[in-house]
Inverse folding.
């Protein structure tokens, strides 16, 4: 937060970089601080969660600009994750990328595919990034052992539950395993007519592929590798069969939308909800009952998929811009800034040291639910980082939807989805190479 | 027709009142049919207004009624702090106004040429115009972006206007209308010594007013609400438009901030609503009083 902080950082970066044998690869790190001349940077970001994030981000950037003479960062709001990606890709396409941007972490391979990202490994190693960042978060920006971004606003799915409904049904604790989850969901369902008047469980639609990946991880499967998806593995099939079983007994809603599911939870039409940690503040303040937050129940292990995004730096820009961009990215992910950011938004602070600050400790004492997400972060990892991830998301979502409405069996759906997608990935990679 | 009046019977207890009502109902049966339709049509608007006056918990609380417990106007100022809506409003008016003004000129001239002039390759060019209608706007985003960048217009107000000053759709609509105008009228005008522009101004345009109005409404609504293109070509608040401000309130990760989203929606649609209410009679009149059948 204070200027001296970042000065020390820069000095540390410089010393370490001078000592390292990689200087020739990073001329921009050792370039002298350009006193007098101003570097203008564009930072494109989406707004993903409620709260006045736009005001918060522009405020943070104003603080940064004030503390860093010589660098002027321009905040460019770019809509959703999707439209941000489109805007940045368009700018990259015409050869004028923004200095930094904030995509969803799944887009890593997409940007690497167009060779747009600056490799930050060495400069980050010279700094304290590898020591202080929470490992699972940093992993989302790593491809082939190289670092291409700094996690800025990570989130994971968590299990929200209606405390009043649990008490009413005589359930004492939130479910911890899939079996518990099944039982609890059944106990909480209130029947009436064709559809229950209260579902036991709803999985937030629209991002249910993200939540499904968490289920795969709980079953000890990472359902993708660098260049293929593994949805046809028995662990994934079992996860989908589990969902289908809950839908079949009528305790889980077969489909929902992202916003609709949150609304249903707040209105009491569903007693438990899988949704993003980013919704914590909104759900807590807009519900008329006490909201509980639990780690997602496990099967073989705890597991979660990482949402949210890192700040990435463009490769195609001058060294002076890269250096300034690093200063900015480093500042946005510094201890105090991250603590404030996490408390204001519900995103998880990325640094271990952020969680130890006084303000954060006070906040956790007041909102203990926020700690659940941190505890779960230990078991979380990157989400669907394959080329053409947007298409992959559509394919798996459609396979899940068709299974849950009973059009197709889980195994057949997942096998077909994996085959289709792997063919598509191969095609995209061929095109990128050629 | 009699079964239309059936529901009214339930409300009438004295016979005289019943007769009177029946009579009135017979005269106003059309109203019986149209009032529910009108209510249906107005209901989203009413819901938007009511929601914008509620608190966040009230919206989803199962016991809360349709009406807000207390009228809370603080959502409006709270919405205005999210983004500079004043600047956005001014930009929206400038952009939409310029687009429609430019379009009316270009489509009139182009449609006249296609409808009444003879020139080589006329059919071919017209086919190309029609082809342009068939391309979804998203397909041309990148090429338009590159063109504007070469012109140095990215992140300026003209960038929001320039790609839309011609309209294949409008040209097509207007050409069809022009062709329905009897050629005797223009021939008569020509005998009186009118040139092309004078004929267009004195004969054609007054007769195709309904088409112009219909196209104007469609075009204004489309460009007023356009989101993706302004988002793509602008970076600064000073040149952005209202829908981008609205986008700030619809959150992807956590569910919408309904109260302020609806307050924002009111702010965005209010100028259009006002515009339509003021000019409603004029719009309707232009459809009723026209010589062209």
């Amino acid at each position: 937060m204070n200027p001296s902080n970042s000065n020390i950082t820069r000095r540390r970066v410089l010393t370490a970089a001078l000592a390292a044998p990689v200087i020739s690869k990073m001329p921009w790190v050792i370039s002298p601080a350009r006193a007098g001349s101003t570097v203008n940077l564009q930072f494109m970001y989406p707004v993903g969660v409620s709260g006045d994030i736009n005001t918060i981000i522009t405020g943070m950037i104003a603080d940064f600009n004030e503390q860093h003479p010589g660098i002027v960062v321009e905040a460019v709001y770019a809509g959703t994750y999707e439209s941000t990606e489109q805007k940045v890709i368009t700018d990259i396409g015409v050869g004028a990328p923004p200095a930094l941007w904030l995509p969803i972490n799944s887009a890593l391979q997409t940007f690497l595919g167009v060779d747009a990202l600056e490799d930050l490994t060495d400069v980050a190693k010279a700094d304290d990034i590898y020591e202080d960042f929470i490992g699972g978060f940093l992993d989302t920006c790593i491809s082939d052992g190289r670092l291409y971004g700094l996690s800025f606003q990570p989130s994971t799915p968590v299990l929200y539950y209606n405390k009043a409904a649990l008490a009413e049904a005589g359930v004492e604790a939130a479910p911890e395993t899939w079996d518990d989850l099944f039982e609890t969901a059944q106990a909480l369902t209130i029947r009436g007519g064709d559809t229950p008047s209260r579902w036991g469980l709803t999985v937030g639609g629209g991002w249910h592929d993200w939540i499904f990946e968490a289920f795969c991880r709980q079953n000890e499967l990472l359902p993708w590798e660098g260049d293929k998806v593994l949805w046809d593995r028995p662990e994934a099939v079992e996860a989908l069969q589990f969902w289908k079983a809950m839908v079949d007994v009528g305790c889980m809603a077969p489909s929902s939308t992202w916003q609709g599911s949150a609304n249903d939870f707040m209105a009491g039409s569903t007693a438990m909800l899988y949704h993003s940690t980013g919704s914590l503040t909104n759900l807590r303040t807009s519900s008329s009952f006490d909201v509980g937050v639990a780690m997602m129940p496990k099967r073989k292990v705890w597991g979660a998929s990482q949402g949210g995004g890192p700040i990435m730096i463009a490769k195609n820009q001058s060294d002076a811009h890269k250096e300034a961009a690093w200063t900015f990215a480093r500042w946005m992910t510094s201890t105090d800034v991250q603590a404030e950011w996490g408390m204001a938004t519900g995103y998880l602070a990325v640094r271990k040291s952020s969680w130890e600050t006084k303000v954060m400790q006070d906040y956790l004492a007041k909102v203990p639910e926020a700690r659940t997400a941190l505890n779960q972060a230990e078991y979380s990892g990157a989400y669907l980082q394959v080329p053409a991830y947007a298409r992959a998301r559509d394919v798996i979502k459609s396979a899940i939807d068709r299974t849950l409405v009973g059009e197709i069996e889980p195994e057949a759906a997942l096998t077909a989805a994996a085959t289709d997608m792997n063919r598509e990935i191969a095609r995209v990679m061929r095109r990128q190479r050629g | 027709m009699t079964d239309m009046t059936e529901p009214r019977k339930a409300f009438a207890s004295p016979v005289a009142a019943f007769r009177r009502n029946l009579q009135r109902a017979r005269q106003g049966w059309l109203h019986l049919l149209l009032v529910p339709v009108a209510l249906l049509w107005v209901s989203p608007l009413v819901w938007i207004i009511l929601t914008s006056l509620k608190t966040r918990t009230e919206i989803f609380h199962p016991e809360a009624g349709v009406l807000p417990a207390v009228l809370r106007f603080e959502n409006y100022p709270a919405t205005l702090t999210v983004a500079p809506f004043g600047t956005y409003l001014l930009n929206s008016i400038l952009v939409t106004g310029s687009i429609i003004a430019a379009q009316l000129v270009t489509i009139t001239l182009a449609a006249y040429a296609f409808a009444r002039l003879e020139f080589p390759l006329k059919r071919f060019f017209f086919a190309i115009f029609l082809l342009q209608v068939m391309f979804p706007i998203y397909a041309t985003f990148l090429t338009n972006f590159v063109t504007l960048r070469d012109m140095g217009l990215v992140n300026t107000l003209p960038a929001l206007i320039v790609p839309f000053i011609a309209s294949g759709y409008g040209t097509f609509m207007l050409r069809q209308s022009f062709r329905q105008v009897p050629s005797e009228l223009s021939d008569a005008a020509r005998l009186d010594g009118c040139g092309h522009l004078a004929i267009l101004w004195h004969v054609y345009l007054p007769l195709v007013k309904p088409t112009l109005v219909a196209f104007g409404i469609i075009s204004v609504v489309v460009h007023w609400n356009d989101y993706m293109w302004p988002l793509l070509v602008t970076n600064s608040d000073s040149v952005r438009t209202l829908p981008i401000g609205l986008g700030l309130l619809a959150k992807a990760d956590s569910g919408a901030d309904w109260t302020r989203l609806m307050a924002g929606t009111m702010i965005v649609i209010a100028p259009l609503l006002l515009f339509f209410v003021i000019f409603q009679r004029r719009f309707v009149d232009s459809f009723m009083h026209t010589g062209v059948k």
